[in-house]
Please model this.
Amino acid sequence: MVSDIPPGLASTQAFNVLIEDIKKTLDEMEACRPYFTKQKLLWEFSWHNFQTMLDFFGCIVIILQIILIFLAFEYADAVWYESLIAEVVFLLFLFIGNVTFKLWDSKIKHKEIIERTKFITKYLEDCSKISKWDEKNYPNLCSPLSPSIVLQPTLRDGKLVNVPWALLVRGDCVQLRPGQPIPAKCRSYQDNEEDVKNFEYNEVYSPFPDKNPAVDIRQCEPLQHIYCVLEETPYIRNLKVFVQKSCKRPTSSVEKERYLLFIMTMEHFGIPIAVAILYAVNLVRYFYFSKSIGTCSWIDLFLMQPVAATLPLTPIVFPILWRLMNAAGLAWILALFYTARKQQFTDDPFEAAAVSPHPHLTLFAKYEALKKYCMRNFRGRGPSPFRTQNLLHTFGRVTALCCLDKKGILSWPNPTAEKIFFLTTGRHDRENERKKRHKQGTEYGTQVEVLDLTHDITSPFRLQFDDQSWKNYVSNLKPLGLGILLNTCNSETQEHYSHFSSHIACESMKDKYSVPVINRRCLCEVAFQIGFSREVKASYAMESQISAFRHLAQNNREQNIQASYLPKTKFPFPHVVAVSAKENYRGDHHMFTQGTGEMVADSCVDFWDGADSIPLTHADRKKILDFYHRTSLTSYCTAFGYRPLDRPMSPKISEWYLEIPTDCEAIYRKYRTNSPLSWDGPGKLAEENQSNDSAFGNIVDIRPIESVSDVFGAQSNQTFLGMVTMQYQAKIDMVQMVEQLDKACIRFVHFSKENELRSRVFSEKMGLESGWNCHISLGEEPEEDTLQDLYCSNGSALDRSTENLTSNSGKMPRNISNLSGSSGNNIEMSQVKFEDDISVHCVGDGYTDDEGRGSKMSLCNKEDSRRCTSSIRATSSSSLLATSETNLSRSQSHITESTDQSGANVPFDMHNRAKLPKGIKNIRPHIENVDNVPLLVSLFTDCTPDVTEEMIQIMQDYGEIVCVIGSSANPQNAGAFMKGDASLAVEPLYPQLCQASPSFEIPHLQNGPSPVEVSRRLNSLPCSLSFHRDELSSLLQLILESRHLISCFQNVMQFWTCCCCSITFMHIISALVMLPPILSSGQGLWLCFVVVPLLSVSLMGLPTDPDILKVPTEKLPKNLSKELIGFILWCYCGKFLPSMLIVVLLYALCTMGFCWDIVLKSRTLAPNVTYEQCIYVYPLEKGNSVPDNWSQPELELAWFKAQHYACFFFVLYIVVISSSFVCRDKHFWQKSPLCNGLWILMSTLVLLFHGIYMSLTLYDLENEDTMYKPPFSVIPLSIWLIAFIWPLVLIAFNEAIKRNEVRSKFRLQKRARLEFGTKLGMNSPF
Model:
């Protein structure tokens, strides 16, 4: 026996247990994952690691450079070689600093998720001290279920509350409802240990009653909830996933591009080639041309020149600067994001986006915020993961934005009414027509009326009729509106309905072709639009609640197997719920019913046409069922019925459910015959009921209705009121964002848990393509023996029995208006008001049909099903595919709304007719062997967490940059969050029981954050950003800024690479033309440590261009083609190589000028030294056959000056070249480089600093005692003319190259945009 309800844990205790389990898990994970292991160190410095910035090859090169410089210092005698020891120390310091930084950075990356978890733990400790929560701070226990939100009824602080999944802890006492998945390993709470039951994680609690299927109506005891004690903390399961997969995130394309440029191109390719060429050329020079032309000392040729040439290609500065740049860039994005959250906009920012093609919101971040975020990011303590997943890199190159959840994120959390269906007789003047009918005996055909409603995009519930003429049908809608207020939106019925939902969820598991469909959602706004006020409920007192269900008829389903191609369909589990209410004013009793269309139709014998109750015919039932089944495919249809009662219903009826047998035709006929209403003589009944005071004649029995037979009899003779279809409406900001993403060539991909047809309908509301080749089902293929289930294709159970209610002449019964809902309900006009200033709209979408024909869309009979299938498939498939859908895959929730699973009996093919793969296992073979259409679609249906992760992996394997957006209240998103390049956790909007009651209340600030907020923090632990759905989170703005920053990063990397390669190229050219080394190692360090970094970083100062959203994202090519290599050589080598050749030329001319000046002044240099001529650029001493080298003590100052002049010219030219990198896609007359203020500042400082550096160095050398000190006037005028005229030519030359580059990029962008919008594939019908 179960003892008294346990008290459960207190909130403080639950916090302490959660903190304790998290800390214990972290300690275990850290012990199992030591960082400093041999394998991890080898991987961090491996050249196969795309994320490494310093590999073993780079370390070896730097060590060799240090050794060579030290050897040169030991063996050289020249004055300027004395500074080499300082270079050795400086290089050694840089090397040790880079290795240390590499190890520290790798450790921070390895522990990033651990540190974030510790921060969350501290947050939980603070919450445990101040949080004071009551029942109102938790979501309502009867809240509608949503796949985006996982809640668990739990005993906390002695009360049963709906606790978010992430806050469940070991020792919690949870309430398990029938059909619910188990949140964690637990055991039942029992007094007797022998009766204790153990449950495993994700097991479904299903206490099936041990009984045979019902053969007659019977009383069914509700399945009971049980209390269980959790034996583990559910969140620990996800935490382990976060920690284990944190360092296995995909490498960003920006990091791959950096690896390609700096590791592969400069280190692995550039250094070996440069060293090989230099040693080969210098060996030839030293041994073959030293006597004829002249050469340098062996120290310069074999020690210093290889070092000076390879020094720019080694990673001595870039690793640390790269991390700082990324930290600053991410800090800018975070500052913008949090600034945008705090700012209040009067207009929707995306509304401006819809008017202006490419908006650029002006959101400025403060310097203090940038500094704070930058330092926190660099130290691994930022609000967003910086090293394991970089939001900046992902947003800057994102190609697919994947959303995992719909409700509360893409759509409003509550469905709203779209259509109201009811039957009329097509008469406008009802009184005159009734008189005419009595006189002439004329009968009018039944007409279907469908009123459309439009949802207000700014409000979650607000509705309007589409046309003012809807008021003509107000008498038809009054009973429906009253039924909504007394049954659907009655707070007194919610708990009972929640229990019943759990019961039918468990009952439906007995039949694999049925699914519990929960359509009961707030429809107050419909009643308000009709004219009711909320106070009308005060006029009625609820007596009891009636719940009934029945299983699907297995034998009928099997008889309807067709050879036509249809997937297996799941049917909504038939059920109805009704309330018995007493009218306080008159004491009358009424029953209002709602439920699935089949059961409500079977329970009704007539329909309300606004004035009379008209008997339902076979054709009428076909129209009702036809509309119900068609709309149930893509929306959520609920039928409504009504019946006045002659006596009250006992409250004991609410304690049990009514089970109706599957074969219920005879039973309905029997109880209709025994109905208290006399259907044999409508004329006699009318005579007995002259007064409207009672809906019945003489009251025979006043005892309450409490037996099974009486309840079923009362339920079997109802009046059909109508049906309401509901649909989830897309939020307008998401619709506009999808439109802007499409313009930015970013594919919005929705991973829908629903089936193909229902998902396509919502995708159309989102603005996604849903036509040919636009969606793929990831569910498994159905079995070969596919069933075509045509449920109720034989008509409803009462098709034949109800025809007996009509006379042989086909006339309807006489006036039975006393049975109508309106007369029996006594609806006062004071309670049904219509304001003149209310804008209402209506559209009549009805159609008339004779009773014998039925509707054109009605379901065919069993014997005609094959012919009907082919006919509809041929004529209506194109239109129906847009508004119909197949059954849904198995839902993630134990009770599903019809959005998750819906059955439908439609005799036409509901599949995507394109030849696309079905099932996740067929995606890769299709991409490899057929086409890439699976990478281009925007909708994947029938998704589960596992197939979603696999599909994201496939997209990444084929070059897509994936950003994942999902609900922070759904723990099943954990795997997908870890799979994406970046992930965003969004707290969804919570569904409401009724618009009058919020989902939960936010506690006061002094009482701490809400449980939902704490849950969001926990579930969003590995995500880059986490925010509330209703907060301003301008993703487009963040993507815009990220694209701009990544474009700047790309310019920085390319310019840096070109500058460093140009230095190496100058050394190679100077060696090939037999010149002395053009730059010293010290000058190389100056250029690589100061000049190139400053100029490169200055390119980050370009203002953001909103038009960058028009540019499709570039993807790294898998293979370098000849065309691509030629394009790279032309665009980059063409910009730099001419200038480098000019620098070498100027260096040669300068050296030659110094040489001839030495010959002319040779007699004054030294009394014993006379230079008689110059051989090439080397002076030849008199009486000597071998030219002297420039490293001689008496000549070294001239050579060093020539090197400084060459270095100055190089700096001047790269400053000029950098101007063409400021605006890569526009010429200087279209957009001036002067718009980049940072570039202007840095260029000025570079020239100024270099001038100071050159002056100080030369001044120091001028004081040395050397033979020859060349004056400034010795340099020929031609050198200065060439040096300062070339920048003008260089600008024009670079603009010509840029013109070609811009044209090529424009063609590539057009091709990329065409590929983005093309989804035809080889199986295209066009």
